Every structure is written in structure tokens, then in C-alpha cells.
UniProtKB/TrEMBL annotation:
<dbReference type="InterPro" id="IPR006202">
    <property type="entry name" value="Neur_chan_lig-bd"/>
</dbReference>
<dbReference type="InterPro" id="IPR036734">
    <property type="entry name" value="Neur_chan_lig-bd_sf"/>
</dbReference>
<dbReference type="GO" id="GO:0005230">
    <property type="term" value="F:extracellular ligand-gated monoatomic ion channel activity"/>
</dbReference>
<feature type="domain" description="Neurotransmitter-gated ion-channel ligand-binding">
    <location>
        <begin position="45"/>
        <end position="156"/>
    </location>
</feature>
<keyword id="KW-0732">Signal</keyword>
<dbReference type="Pfam" id="PF02931">
    <property type="entry name" value="Neur_chan_LBD"/>
</dbReference>
<protein>
    <recommendedName>
        <fullName>Neurotransmitter-gated ion-channel ligand-binding domain-containing protein</fullName>
    </recommendedName>
</protein>
<dbReference type="GO" id="GO:0016020">
    <property type="term" value="C:membrane"/>
</dbReference>
<feature type="signal peptide">
    <location>
        <begin position="1"/>
        <end position="16"/>
    </location>
</feature>
Length: 157
């Protein structure tokens, strides 16, 4: 037990990509599944001083972030008298964050709001909207997937 606590403490202070790349072997020694190991490595990477979720990707290179957007409409309603429309939809955004690339993360990382709070997310808005309601009951309907190459896919209803 003491060995595991010391080992996890040593792992939590290591932020470089070289050390993160050696973690799968340590995960095998501890009997952790590859998906759990990828999640732990992702959490270490996003907790490091090298990653700041408030700074957009490619800012240092002064390059834009290409964001792909898709919408899947579930329900649509239009009132001709008031000329208002409402819709229920799934909204998906995709982009690449090169700061999330690590040799140690070999599997896709999936999660909800706790994972979303760790990464940079675009501030997308609908300019002519009167009101936007985000489904929050019982919890916010969101899903985030991060691939080992830094591709991020964010879904919300």
C-alpha cells in the first residue's frame, strides 16, 4: 500500500511527455486497464503547468483554431404569427488541441462535464437568438472525447 502511494505521488509530479510515455508499463505493473491509464495520464497532462484551458490552442503560433460544427435537429417548431422558431438539437464541435498530444496517451479519453472543465472549449454562440436553454436536468447533457492526436469532439444537447 505504501509503495503504491509513493509511486502515485511520483507519477503525479511528472509532467514531461517523456515520462508520460513510460506510464503504460507502470499501469501494466499495477494492473490498470489501458482506458483507465489513458484517463489518468490525461488528467495529469491537463493539471500540469504546461496546459492552461484559458489559453486557446495555437495562440503562441498566432494561428487560428479550425472548429468544425454539426447540428442534429431533434425537434423543430415555427410560429408564423410571432415569427419565432424553436428547436431541440444536438450541437457538436470538433477541433485539434496540439497541447493534448502525449506519447503516453494511447487510447481515446471519454467523459462529461468534469472532463470538459479541464480543456479549452470554444465560446460558440448564436448571434440572432432570443433565448438559448441548455438541458441541465438531471445533469447537463454533454459528452467530450479526446483522441491521442489531440482531436477533441464536444457534444451537447
Amino acid at each position: 500500500m505504501k509503495f503504491i502511494i509513493i509511486l502515485m505521488s511520483v507519477i503525479s509530479v511528472c509532467y514531461s511527455k517523456d515520462i508520460l510515455g513510460k506510464l503504460p508499463k507502470m499501469a501494466d505493473l499495477l494492473g490498470i486497464s489501458p482506458r483507465v491509464a489513458a484517463m489518468k495520464k490525461f488528467k495529469m497532462l491537463t493539471n500540469s503547468p504546461m496546459y492552461d484551458k484559458d489559453i486557446r490552442p495555437n495562440l503562441a503560433e498566432n494561428a487560428p483554431v479550425q472548429i468544425g460544427i454539426t447540428m442534429y435537429v431533434i425537434n423543430y417548431d415555427f410560429d408564423p404569427k410571432s415569427r419565432e422558431m424553436s428547436m431541440m438539437m444536438y450541437f457538436r464541435q470538433m477541433w485539434n488541441d496540439p497541447r493534448l498530444v502525449s506519447n503516453g496517451i494511447t487510447q481515446d479519453v471519454y467523459g462529461g462535464q468534469s472532463l470538459m472543465e479541464r480543456v479549452w472549449v470554444p465560446d460558440t454562440f448564436f448571434s440572432n437568438s432570443m433565448d438559448v436553454d441548455i438541458v441541465k436536468y438531471p445533469t447537463r447533457n454533454m459528452f467530450l472525447k479526446v483522441k491521442p492526436n489531440g482531436d477533441v469532439m464536444y457534444n451537447e444537447r
